[in-house]
Amino acid sequence: MSDVFPDPTPAPPHLATEFFAWLWYASERDGGTFDLGDGSVFTYWVDDRLSFRLPDEDKARAVLTGESAAASLEARAALLGGKVVRDLRLACKREDREYSVTLRGVNLDLQGAKLPTELKAADQVDEVLYERTFLLDELWFMVGTLYRRFATERVGPEWASEHLPAMRRWAAGAD
Amino acid sequence: MGILTGALSVRRYRAVGQVPEDFRTAYADALTDNAFREPREWTPGLEASGWCQIHNLLDTEFEDINRWLYNQYLVASLRMDKKSLPGNLLKAHLDKRIKAWCEEQGRPKCPARVKAEIKEQLQVELFEKTLPRVTTWEFCWDLQSGHVLFHNSAEKANDLFRKRFRQTFGLALLPWSPLDFLADDPELSHALEITGLSDLRAEDAV
Questions:
Q1: CA separation for the pair B83, B102 (Å, rounded)
Q2: Beta-carbon separation of A5 and B142 below 8 A
Q3: How do residues B63-73 score in pLDDT, each as one tens digit?
Q4: Domain range spanning residue B30?
């Protein structure tokens, strides 16, 4: 496509896998609660799917599904074995609206996003569209908020001295 | 599953450029001009593509803006048809035809050139009897924000979508990047972009 559309430089691929691993870690470290600073919070957790790949491949080498996928020994073992998180299913809840979505790939493509819709497709198209885009924006806002937190920690001075060692201990099951 | 119902699987883009003031009529014409049309003749490998309405893939007219424009949202589907012949059936028919040609000509073998002609003719005949495999992918364009959601994340489908979009609306689609989450903080975005890989294995294993 580059001959037709001069794409902007994409984000380095490792950022997506690091973000996924960080999401998993932070959801357990922080009890899955994110304080938005305006008196409101949302909660987030790794849902029922995690897949891993080798750093230089795209193909999934291990896929873990089920309610306790993130808590399984196999999941941590994959990280300790040098695999990276290829995709994960993230669940978020803000007020009474609960979402789940699989994040995948360098650009965080949304796969199988389940939105807490109330309207049905048979209702007015414009109302259905409005509701679904509003909910998708809210989901995107939460993912973006988490990404900003990840970015801030990742480039901060404590990354190498505190966060990364803590993540390693967590991956090893020491925490 | 798609834009209006079920789970969403989307890749995000940003349309770059100005939406014209007369976009209602301009885009109705553009969509119609680039709508899906059945090819006159199918050839091996041909993929026919174009726009159709999200309501029914057989609806390929866009004069009625109420069928594709909802407030600031432009929604339509990209339809792609492809015909393919079952390889074993084609081979079986081809063998029969070649055998018949040899008997008719009183020759033990059929030359490669004749074989190719017979195969081509056979493909045309079988294509006429075959229904295409029809795929549609919806998209939703927020004309105010410029954001575009395309309901597929496969590279091939996205390449086709971006080309068709450009041909139709004259606007380029730039893929959304996670760094866009940090667009209001270029320093943070840049600092993140240049970070190296972190290895989560225990330090003594790294």
A1: 30
A2: no
A3: 999 999 998 99
A4: 11-83+133-181
Backbone angles phi, psi at A173, to 5 degrees: 80, 15
Report yes or no on A2 lying in a domain.
no
Q: How far is A145 from chain B (nearest CA, A)?
A: 8
Cβ contacts (< 8 Å) between B4 and chain A: which residues?
Answer: 121, 125, 128-129, 132
User: What pLDDT is recorded for position A1?
Assistant: 47
The complex's ipTM works out to: 0.86
Encode pLDDT of B147-187 as tens digits.
999 999 899 999 999 999 999 999 999 999 999 999 999 99
Contact B9 A110 (CB under 8 A): yes
Q: Please say if the pLDDT value at position A161 is more than 50.
A: yes
- Hey, is the C-beta of A29 within 8 angstroms of any chain B C-beta? no
Which helix (H) or strand (E) segment is B100 a member of? Answer: helix B87-105
Q: Does A107 touch chain B (CB under 8 A)?
A: yes
Residue B77 sits in the same domain as residue B147: yes
Nearest CB partner across the interface for A5, out of B172, B191, B201: B172
Query: CB–CB of A136/A115 below 8 Å?
Result: yes
B56 and B143 share one domain: yes
Please tell me whether residues B139 and B60 are part of one structural domain.
yes
Within-domain flag for B195: no
